[in-house]
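[Automated response] Your request has been received and processed.

Submitted sequence:
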Amino acid sequence: MPETWFPFRSAAPNARLRLACFAHAGGGASAFREWARLLPPWIEVVAVQLPGHETRLREPVVDDVMQLAPRLASAVTELPELPLALYGHSYGAALAHALARELEAGGAPLLRLFLAGGEAPHTLRTTPLSYTRSDDELVARLLGIGGTPGQLFDDPGLRALFLPVLRADLKAAETYKVPADARVAAPFSILAGTRDEAVERPRLERWPELSSGASSLHWFDGTHFFPRERRAEVLARISADLGEDLR
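Generated structure:
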């Protein structure tokens, strides 16, 4: 059911396109709750809720992007027809790319992909995998890159609830690999933080190799969570690029 995947969706009567949004590892649809109010009314925002996250906490989390992609495609195609763009932050960038491949393979065109703070999945990692770290190492890593309240890990119950979901998301993101010719037709807008220590910059900068369309790279003064720190600037970039796509 679309309501399961898009819990905060409310139809935008003047919408000319739809923007489906994917959160970072461990995050959920609530990260985009304010976007519909802040973006122009011609953009309908649908925030994606994955199994095992927030309103779907009782469902088992899925740690494989390729298992999620066809399920996401089915959910998206059940929505009323509108031109579609995708936004993904970090792990969400991998999901957006996988969904784009799934939709285009089924003949559904896309306007654009916004890929924020993520690494191109056809490139080789040079840093250790995060999802294989111990709980304490993983917590230290998260606190080091910022964006996660330390109080979350002070409560044993919350910690025990959050870490398995986070670890599954990280596994999905870090094991998602595609060949170098796995291009999609849609153009890419690549968004990056100048002080993002969670990504390998050379890998982030190679996203354009996976698009047959034009790509652009935009830097924002911020950490891995620059979409939150520079929200107004990020949303202005999204609005501008989508506005151009509709011309």
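Summary generated for your ticket: The chain is about 40% helix and 15% strand. The chain has one domain: 2-245.
If you did not submit this request, please reply to this message.
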